[in-house]
Amino acid sequence: MSEDQVFLGLGLIVVLAVGSQVLADRLRIPALIVLLPVGFTAGALTDDVDPERLLGSAFSPLVSLAVAVILYDAGLGLDLRSFRAHTRRVVVRLIWFGALFTGASAALVAMPFLGMSPGAAVMLGAILVVSGPTVVGPLLAFVRPTERLRRILIWEGSLIDPVGGILGALVFHAVAAGGSHGFGSRVGPFAVSTAVGVAGGVVGSVVLTVALRRLRLGEVLATTVQLAAVVGVAAACDVVRDDTGLIAAVLMGLAVANLSGGNATARRPFFETLVDLVIGLLFISISATVSPQSLRHVWLPALGLVAVLVLVVRPLVGAVSAWRTDLTAGERGFLGWMAPRGIVAAATASTFSGALAEQGVAGAAKILPATFVVIVATVTLYGLSAAPVARRLGVVRSARSRPLLVGGDPWVVDLGRALRSAGLEVVMWAGREAERAGIRAAGIELAPGELFAAATGEGAELEGLTGVLLLTGEDDFNALAATRLEGSVEGTVLRLRPPADSQGVITPYAGGEMLFDPDLTGPELARRHALGARIVARRVDGAVPSGHRTLFLVRGDGRLLPVTRGGGPAPEPGDVAVLLSTGTPEHLSS
Questions:
Q1: Could you tell me if 16 and 38 are in contact, meaning their C-beta atoms sit under 8 angstroms apart?
Q2: Ordered alpha helix ranges (H), 46-146
């Protein structure tokens, strides 16, 4: 390829990846539903979007390293404290039984449906055991199932990917070595590969935790150090044993997230942005390698394979995995209706399909297009059906807001009472013991422990927080806490507006959304409350009562809508308004 073609091809891949993600965000659908057809169409319309021609032999190693970065980020989101007995039991069954049963079933179906040789069918079965956090995570964020279900599916998706990657590599070498007779003897190599991945994960975890805790790196350096460590360790592991870098990457993320002091600097917006970009680039690149000709005789039997996987295999895996656990019938049903395939399936298919086809394995050329059809079909099916299925099974978390109020001043406690009287479940946190005693006396749930642990839901007591309201009298604390918590909790993080003449160290320069009208700063609210103003909840059937200011609206379904510097929400019939009474006029104007 000429230099101009390389420039054009790389530029198109980046633009298509980001553009597809923006479009998916606007349409409120999983990004894969857009990325895969866009990449396929681009690959069909132009030869410039062809990563195998652009990168040559470097394409496959780059895909492996990119997947390692994605799995490291997935590991950062795994909290060992949520891996309790019932969660652990279900996840372990999903991994070992799910992988064996899914792989064997897919292989048995692929032979008659797709006309594959036993070796190619077993290779396809090994590829299709994986799910993946890059697909499951966005779907769960959209569906909002119960916290227990969310934890189980996220753990499964994060752990099955490295297992599936290694299984795929072992099956590939067994098939390439000459048949299926030696699969039972691959237990030893599987154990060796696991040991290599674990060793690499331990070494990388030590390096990262020391760097992040001892060197006091800033956000930019912390991100680049994580990237370098993950890529370096994954590459070294893959040199020793194929795809063992995936295990090392997950373990490194898990260690950094759960060892004291590591998580504070681990997950930052830039790193998450980098991972999102990598995901987009991979899906565009891999789907561009699938030609329309390769799908011509594959798509219909591949859809038959999808039907078996979705309607028979996954429900059985879910039922066995949930057997003799305390999961409800609805949770068991949803567990059996959530197994989309993602980036690791695409990456392994892209890596192994062509190599086996070159060695003359019958049906190997169908592995990549069949995997492509399975990914597109499962992502589309689960993406469109997961929400209504979850609602039908009764496993959707309530839309009712559950805010965390940070602060213990009398007016904040008054606000907590008003929100509770409006029908919301309110949690409060305060640092001073006198303020905490006031919260207890008001009968409001008090968040235990340290603020950031409470706000990020690391304790079981605080699962399901839908936002944080920073209402302390310290403007700099509010600004710093908003910066730290943004992106770490579900929902929005809002803080009080500082006075116009604030000279705080952080406050004048921090961003983030601010609460209430411009004149209702923290000191002004405290002053008004001390002079007799009160915060009350009233049903709004028309205009706001005279002598009151709107702070929040609570919709009929329990959603909490604040008044911010961008304006207030328009009242609707049935809303409950949380109002600030003006108190005695002569007092408040003094």
A1: yes
A2: 51-55, 59-76, 85-114, 118-127, 133-143
C-alpha to C-alpha distance for 243 and 468, rounded to whole angstroms:
41
Pairing type for strands 535-539 and 576-581 reads antiparallel
pLDDT digits (tens, 9 = 90+) for 407-452: 888 989 999 999 988 888 888 888 888 888 888 898 888 887 666 6
Tokens standing for residue 44: 């069909």
pLDDT of 465 above 80: no
Task: Using alpha carbons, list the distances in angstroms from residue 224 to 75, 229, 248, 288.
Answer: 17, 8, 18, 29
Residue 42 reports pLDDT greater than 60: yes
d(CA 25, CA 44): 25
Counted residue by residue, the chain has a size of 590
Question: Shortest CA distance to 167 belongs to which of 318, 310, 344, 356?
Answer: 344
- Predicted pLDDT at 254: 81
Tokens of 579: 């109002």
For position 332, what pLDDT does the model report? 92
Identify any residues that bridge with 396 across adjacent strands, giving them in sequence order. 145
Share of the chain above pLDDT 70, in %: 85
| CB contact at 8 A, 47 and 53 | yes
Long-range contacts of 290-298 (CB under 8 A, 24+ apart): 290/40, 290/43, 290/368, 290/369, 290/372, 291/43, 291/44, 291/369, 292/44, 294/365, 294/366, 294/368, 294/369, 295/369, 295/372, 295/373, 298/114, 298/366, 298/369, 298/370, 298/373
Burial bucket for residue 184 (CB in 10 Å: 0-12, 13-18, 19+): exposed
At 150, which helix (H) or strand (E)?
helix 147-178
**Nearest by Cα to 142 from 493, 397, 468:** 397
What are 49's two structure tokens? 């979007």
Instruction: Kindly report, residue by residue over 112-170, the tens digit of the pLDDT.
Output: 999 999 989 999 999 999 886 777 877 887 787 887 888 888 888 888 877 777 787 77
Closest CA to 268 of 514, 483, 507: 483
Q: What pLDDT score was predicted for residue 235?
A: 93
**What are the φ/ψ torsions at residue 429 (nearest 5 degrees)?**
-140, 140
Query: Cα(142)–Cα(418) distance, rounded to whole angstroms?
Result: 30
Cβ-contact 420, 445 below 8 angstroms: no
pLDDT value of position 264: 44
pLDDT band at 315 (very low <50, low <70, confident <90, very high): very high
Q: How confident is the model at residue 215 (pLDDT cuts 50, 70, 90)?
A: confident
Radius of gyration of the chain, Cα coordinates, nearest whole angstrom: 27
Region 75-96 average pLDDT: 77
55 CB-contact burial (10 Å; exposed 0-12 / middle 13-18 / buried 19+): middle
Q: Which two tokens mark 121? A: 């069918």
Q: Report the candidate in 288, 390, 387, 245 with the shortest Cα–Cα distance to residue 13.
A: 288
CB 106 within 8 A of CB 371: no
Query: pTM for this one?
Result: 0.71
At 412 the three-state DSSP class reads helix
Quick check: 182 pLDDT over 60? no
Query: Which among 300, 365, 376, 286 has a CA at the least distance from the CA of 340?
Result: 376
* β-strands 492-496, 514-515 pairing: parallel
